[in-house]
Each structure stands twice: as C-alpha cells, then as structure tokens.
C-alpha cells in the first residue's frame, strides 16, 4: 500500500500556528502570550449550572439545533443588547463554538468558485474553510499602523462572482472595532450587489475605551442578509466549553444547520443550560470582564512599548499587535521562534494571517487575556532580554 496523502482540498493549508506556538511554550517553559485563552475560568455560578446539568441527566444528545432554553436565551440576548428580534425556533442555531459556526456557514452556503470578501489579516480558520468549501478569497487589507478599512479597496474587491462578505469585528488579530461608517460601506455594497454577510462577532462584548460594537445586522436593510456568529467562549471566559451560535434569517440559519448536522450534529448537552443561565442571569459579566481586560491591555502595551516594540493599542479583543522592525527584525516568524530562548516568552507571528505576506511579515500578536502576574512576568523577561536582531 502506498503512503496516504493529504486530500487536495487541504493543499497549502499548514497546521494551525496556535498549536505550534503553544507546544513551543510548553516545551521551553515560556510564558504563553500566544494562544488566546484566559487563565481564569468564567463565573462559578455558570459552572455550578453545568455540574447540575451533568448530575441531572443532561448527558445524551441535545437537539441538533440546540436546546430550547439556550436558543431562547440567545434570542433574548440579541434583543436586549441590539434590538434584534429573532425567532428562537427558526432563526437561532447552537454550534460547537464560533469556529464550527464559521465552518458550517461556509460549507452550507458557498459553492465552488464563489468569491468571499474577507478582511485581512484573518483568523486562520477562515482560510482553511473557504478553501475546503471551494470558495475564492478576495482579501481587503487592514494596514498597519491604524488597521482601518480602506473603502476604495473594499469596493474594488467586489466582482460579478462575489456572493459573500466574511466580516470580523471586533477584529482578530488587529483589535480594530469597525465604526459605523465602515460598516455602512459594507452594508451599501452588500445591498448593491446582493451579497450575504457572514459576521464573526465572537469578541462583541470585549471592547474598550469609547469604542462600541455595532452589529451590521442592525443597519437598515441588513437583518435579512446577515448571518451573525458568536460564542460564550470569549464573553464568559469559557473557551473550552465550545458553545457558540448563529442567528439570522431562517434560510441562512437553515443552510448552516444543514452542514452542521454532518460535522458535530449537536453540541455539549450539559453546557447549553449553563450558557443559557449565563446569558439570562449574568448579563453584566462581559462588561465587567471588558473593564478588567482593558487594564490588562494597558499593562501589556506599556511593557511592550518599554521593550522597544512599537505597539498599536487595540480597541477590542484579547490582542495587541507590534512591529518588530524597530528591533532590527524584518521577519515576525523568526522573531517569535527566537523569543523563547532569548526571553522565555511566546507570541504569534501575524504574517500567517495574511495572503499579502509583505503586509504582515514584520508584525507580531500578543495576548493580554492572562492574569496580571503572568503579564508582569512576561514583561519583566522582555525587559531583561536582548531582543535586537
């Protein structure tokens, strides 16, 4: 028997950078400011509800679309925060995290050859899933140092073959929160060219300073053409629970569900009631988390700046981005591979999130969703290390 080979649909898609860098952190004993997971669990009250569900017999398959209590809580969440009215029975589906929601949306909606406008840099699963679905990426770059949406480039990216916009705001990895004018430009294009917008809003509640997250579905004419994706993982610090959701018109939600049923079929039964409780009974937790994260953001950014790394203070998410050229590096991957030995710290090279490698070759992403002593220790190590190339 000849050695099996990777399916062509995966050609050119490397293993996720997060696994590689987290393994490097573990093998070197480095402080991991790479992968975006918090050091502290979410609210104990929600954990207690998960335990009660486990002990109460919620251990068999949940409905593929999600348990009614969670779908209803998600619908209330959309109405309470954004004034969006969705039917919990036809316009909400529970997913195994937002990553599956993205995968199922693309697999359920995209035909081979369909073009998808996507903001670059992008979360790496977007590239993999667009390729697996047979779609064609049409990247629009958020360029350093401001990472704003260039409206002329956005318009130029749309062709007669474009059918979708895959939007991400608050944006990973840049930390940009798209403002209303930028969102309106996307909405205008979507309306003019009859595009569906798939929007990843997993960091929806984690915004800082005077910035505010505006779901594009709230703009005039957009509710009927927008599939909104989110998760409890970031808003409630339960990334390992992998409970996410999609909301939107029944036809779009149904297409996502048609693909999801062949991926995971259903998502963790005992965790769904706990997330429902969190959404309904602990609505202030994400706001309090955001305030705490803002302080940790400032701690990280001050330390990076003191280490000679030009840092852009993010408007939202878990992440800050630096330019390593001031330290004599022109390759962020080389910098990140050398960093554990030089400083005992791990970060993520941002170039892996770009088609246009030259735009991100010199950029590095750092996570601040860690406890203060962890950030302090990482900054102490950076300050004591020789970081010049």
Question: How does this structure look, described?
Answer:
With 389 residues, the protein is an alpha/beta fold. The protein folds into 2 domains: 8-41 and 285-384, Aspartate Aminotransferase, domain 1 (Alpha-Beta Complex); 44-281, Type I PLP-dependent aspartate aminotransferase-like (Major domain) (Aspartate Aminotransferase, domain 2, 3-Layer(aba) Sandwich), CATH 3.40.640. 41% of the residues lie in helices and 15% in strands. A 7-stranded mixed β-sheet has the order 2-8-7-6-5-3-4, sandwiched between helices. Helix 7 (180-193) links the parallel strand 5 and strand 6. It is globular and about 55 Å long. The model has no long low-confidence stretch (mean pLDDT 96).
Summary, kept brief:
The chain is α/β, with parallel strands linked by helices. It folds into 2 domains: 8-41 and 285-384, Aspartate Aminotransferase, domain 1 (Alpha-Beta Complex), CATH 3.90.1150; 44-281, Type I PLP-dependent aspartate aminotransferase-like (Major domain) (Aspartate Aminotransferase, domain 2), CATH 3.40.640.10. It has helices at 17-28, 44-55, 68-82, 97-109, 124-133, 151-157, 180-193, 232-235, 250-260, 271-281, 285-306, 332-343, 357-360, 372-384, and strands spanning 31-32, 92-95, 115-120, 136-141, 162-168, 196-200, 226-231, 244-247, 310-312, 319-323, 345-346, 348-349, 363-367.
